[in-house]
Structure formats: structure tokens, C-alpha cells
Design brief:
Length: about 220
């Protein structure tokens, strides 16, 4: 199966986590696009979706799915999103699509985070995929120096302005052995809007698309 077919598979598999007549949290990316398409085609009636990006909002609206503001809900039963990397404990690296801040906000509203990913995303330790960090532009140079001090190389993602009018640094050369401590540390650096490690808001369950079918990791 191609990577695209695996994404379709997990996008469809995520439908079983959608409870009719509830509001669903929806992430961002090519895998989530498959979920949005499957949801629209499924006929499952939902009360609406809280979206993590302009991209997903536009796709859902085009398919007739009502999109609500995050401020309109107190809690979500489920948040469904992809990942750039996921380890065996559900810790993730996210932000390849530059939507990490809103993704973390919506994930924080949800009781259950369902990660949908093809098997290429499963890693033993986070750090292979360049770590996205959303930053206030004024702080980019200082944050770059801070990563250098811990052995990382931060590069500005050229031409990328986030939905929050900020910039993305992509950091290579890191091996993130304690994701929760790393996330807590980097998050409090001045000028960091969001670090792309999702440890506090980790996946409750991962639907992994493999050649043998969908594996459920908990
Ligand atoms: C966007 C994300 C995505 O979930 C992540 O980049 C995976 O995307 P894809 O499903 O296209 O591989 O974090 O900010």
C-alpha cells in the first residue's frame, strides 16, 4: 500500500471514535484531510467541529461540516490529528504543517487524543523529524542560540507565516529523551509561542496504518 492509501485507511478508522451529535476536535495535515473526507462521506451527524487551522476549516466548510470557535465549547470528547513522529508512549512531534499552536489548544480541550498516522511516523525516540517551534519573530535569533547551546541547529522556515502571524523554526540535531521535561523547558523560553513536542497533550491512542492494516497503539 502507498503512504497515501495508509493515510486513507487511518482516516476512515478514526470514524469509530466519533460520537454522533457531539462536537469533534479536528487537526491539520494530509492525514486529517482523509479523516475530514471520510467524516463528510460517512453520514454521521455531528454537532460541529473545532478546527486547528484555516486549512482544515476551509476543507470542512466546503464539505458542509459546521465549524465552531474553540471559545464556544468547554470540552471535547475527542480530538483527531496526525503527527510527524510518535513514540511508543504517545509522545509526538507535530507542526510540519505549521499548525502546532492551534493544534495544542484544541487538543487541550479534548478528553481523548486520537493520533492517525502511517507507520513511517513511529519512532523509538523523538528527534528524527526537524522539530517545529513557533516563535515571535523578534525572538528568533535568541531562540536559535539557545538551541545551538543544546546541540541543535534551528533554521527559519522560509516563507512561512503561521495562522497566528508568527514564524516557525525547524530544529535538527536534537534527541529528545525526556519529552515532558523538554516541552516544559522550551515552552518557557521568552518568545516561544509553542514547541512542537506534544507530551503533556500526548496521544491517548494511535491508529497506525501498516501494510497489515490498522494497528491500535495505546
Ligand atoms: C500539522 C501537523 C500534522 O499533523 C503533521 O505535520 C502530519 O501531517 P501529515 O498528516 O500531512 O503527514 O502537525 O501542523
Amino acid at each position: 500500500m502507498t503512504q497515501d492509501e495508509l493515510k486513507t485507511l487511518v482516516g476512515q478508522a478514526a470514524l469509530k471514535y466519533v460520537t454522533p451529535d457531539t462536537v469533534v476536535g479536528v487537526g491539520t495535515g494530509s492525514t486529517v484531510d482523509k479523516f475530514i473526507d471520510a467524516l463528510a462521506a460517512s453520514g454521521i451527524r455531528i454537532a460541529g467541529a473545532v478546527s486547528s487551522s484555516v486549512r482544515s476549516t476551509e476543507r470542512m466548510k466546503a464539505l458542509g461540516i459546521a465549524v465552531l470557535e474553540a471559545s464556544e465549547v468547554e470540552a471535547l470528547q475527542v480530538y483527531i490529528d496526525g503527527a510527524d513522529e510518535i513514540d511508543h508512549h504517545g509522545h509526538m512531534v507535530k507542526g510540519g504543517g505549521a499548525a502546532l499552536t492551534r493544534e495544542k489548544i484544541v487538543a487541550d480541550l479534548a478528553k481523548t487524543f486520537v493520533c492517525i498516522a502511517d507507520e513511517s511516523k513511529l519512532v523509538d525516540a523523538l528527534g528524527r523529524f526537524p522539530l517545529p517551534v513557533e516563535v515571535i519573530p523578534m525572538a528568533a535569533a535568541q531562540i536559535t542560540r539557545r538551541f545551538a547551546a543544546m546541540g541543535g541547529t534551528a533554521r527559519l522556515r522560509e516563507g512561512c507565516v503561521t495562522d497566528n502571524s508568527c514564524q516557525i523554526l525547524d530544529v535538527t540535531g536534537l534527541r529528545i529523551t525526556d519529552p515532558a521535561a523538554f516541552e516544559a523547558d522550551v515552552n518557557q523560553w521568552p518568545g516561544v509561542v509553542t514547541v512542537g513536542v506534544f507530551a503533556r497533550n500526548k496521544a491517548s491512542v494511535c491508529l497506525l496504518g501498516t501494510a497489515q492494516g490498522v494497528k491500535t497503539l495505546t
